[in-house]
Specification:
With 327 residues, the chain is of the alpha+beta class. It has two domains: 109 residues, Copper Amine Oxidase, Chain A, domain 1 (2-Layer Sandwich), CATH 3.30.457; 200 residues, Zn-dependent exopeptidases (Aminopeptidase), CATH 3.40.630.40. Strands 13-10-14-17-15-16 form a six-stranded mixed beta sheet, with helices on both faces. The chain has a five-stranded antiparallel beta sheet with strand order 3-4-5-6-7. Strands 1-2-9-8 form a four-stranded antiparallel beta sheet. The N terminus is likely disordered.
C-alpha cells in the first residue's frame, strides 16, 4: 500500500520522493521540452531513482517500478495508475513507442507527493455533506426508484455511526431532507472546526453504460479541472482557502478512492480534480466522492440495496481512518 509504509522504510521513501521533487537539479541534461513544459523519458527517470522501466502494448503503455512506487501510464493519457489506483494528472503522457515521457508538473504535484504524505494530526471532527436535499433532488433513476438526495443522506448517516464508534465527532451539513445552499455547506465545516470535509454524491449519465466510483479534490492554483485539463481559465489562476491544504487533499483523495475501488464490481474511475464550490472554501482537507452511477444498468440496482450502501459507508470510513491514522 502506497500510503501506509513501515517506519523503518519511511526515510528511504521520503528520500526517494525528495529526489523526485528536485526536478530541475536531478533531471538537468535529461529532461526535454514538451508540449507543456519539461518532460522526462520513463527509462531515464527509472535510472535516476534506481528503478526499472518496461513497456507493453507495442510500447504505448509504460511501467515504472522504483522504491515504493508502481506506476503505469499510457501514451496520450493523463491518467496514471499508481499502486493500483487511477489518478489523473494535468498533462497527457507524450513521446513515441518505448519512449514515453512524463510531465515534470505531474511528478511534482501528483506523483512524488504521494510517496511522502503530510503528517496528519489525530482527527477530532469530520463534516459529512449529504449532497443535494429539499427542492434539489439531485440525480434520479425512476426505474429503480432512486433519488440521489435520499441516498446521500442514508450513506452519510451510516458513515456517521461508523466514525462515532471510533470516537470521532461528526457534523452533518443537513440532518433531514432540506435544502442547504452550496455556499453554506463549507461554512458549516469551518464554524465547527472540522479537520475534514467529505461531500457524498451519486453519479448519472445518458444511457446505462457508465459505471464506477470517482473522488474529486480541488485543483492546485494554476491547474485546471480534470474535465478541461490544460485549458486554463481565469478562475484556475486564483488561490482559494482550500488550496492551503493541497497536500492533505491529495492524501485524502487517494485514501478514499483506493477504498471505494474495493467495492464489489465497482470500476475505478480515478482520483480527479474539480472546482466545486464546496471544496474551494473549506478550511480543512476536503474531497467529494461520486459513489456510483444511479443510471448504471447493474450499478443502479446495487446502490438501491441497503447492504451495498453500508459497504460504501464502510469504504469511506476506512479511507478516512487510513488518512487520519485512526484505529
Amino acid at each position: 500500500m502506497l500510503l501506509a509504509i513501515a517506519p523503518s522504510m519511511h526515510k528511504v521513501f521520503t528520500l526517494f520522493s525528495t529526489v523526485l521533487l528536485s526536478f530541475p537539479f536531478l533531471w538537468a541534461g535529461k529532461a526535454t521540452a514538451g508540449p507543456h513544459g519539461e518532460y522526462i523519458e520513463l527509462g531515464k527517470l527509472a535510472g535516476c531513482c534506481g528503478g526499472t522501466a518496461s513497456y507493453e502494448e507495442g510500447g504505448r503503455v509504460g511501467h515504472l517500478c522504483g522504491g515504493n512506487l508502481d506506476l503505469r501510464c499510457r501514451h496520450n493519457s493523463a491518467c496514471y495508475c499508481i499502486n493500483g489506483v487511477n489518478i489523473y494528472g494535468q498533462h497527457p503522457v507524450s513521446g513515441g513507442p518505448d519512449q514515453l515521457k512524463i510531465s515534470g508538473l505531474d511528478w511534482r504535484r501528483v506523483i512524488a507527493p504521494l510517496l511522502s504524505p503530510p503528517v496528519i494530526p489525530p482527527l477530532r471532527c469530520v463534516c459529512i455533506d449529504p449532497g443535494h436535499g429539499g427542492s434539489d433532488p439531485g440525480s434520479q433513476m425512476q426505474r429503480h426508484g432512486l433519488v440521489e438526495k435520499q441516498l446521500t443522506l442514508d450513506v452519510a448517516r451510516r458513515l456517521r455511526t461508523l466514525l462515532e464508534a471510533k470516537n470521532i465527532r461528526v457534523v452533518l451539513t443537513r440532518e433531514e431532507d432540506n435544502f442547504i445552499a452550496l455556499a453554506n455547506r463549507p461554512s458549516i465545516a469551518n464554524r465547527s472546526g472540522c479537520d475534514l470535509l467529505l461531500s457524498i454524491h451519486f453519479n448519472a449519465a445518458d444511457g446505462s453504460g457508465a459505471e464506477g466510483v470517482e473522488t474529486y479534490i480541488l485543483p492546485s492554483q494554476g491547474t485546471a479541472s480534470t474535465a478541461r485539463l490544460q485549458n486554463l481559465s481565469a478562475k484556475d489562476r486564483e488561490f482559494f482557502p482550500n488550496n492551503r491544504h493541497d497536500g492533505k487533499n491529495l492524501h485524502l483523495g487517494y485514501c478514499l478512492q483506493r477504498e471505494l475501488g474495493t467495492l464489489q464490481l465497482s470500476k475505478d474511475r480515478g482520483l480527479r480534480r474539480g472546482r466545486f464550490l464546496i471544496l474551494e472554501n473549506a478550511n480543512c482537507a476536503a474531497a467529494l466522492v461520486e459513489c456510483g452511477f444511479l443510471t448504471g444498468a447493474s450499478e443502479g440496482q446495487r446502490i438501491g440495496n441497503p447492504q451495498h450502501r453500508q459497504a460504501i459507508a464502510q469504504a469511506l470510513c476506512r479511507g478516512i481512518c487510513v488518512y487520519g491514522n485512526c484505529r
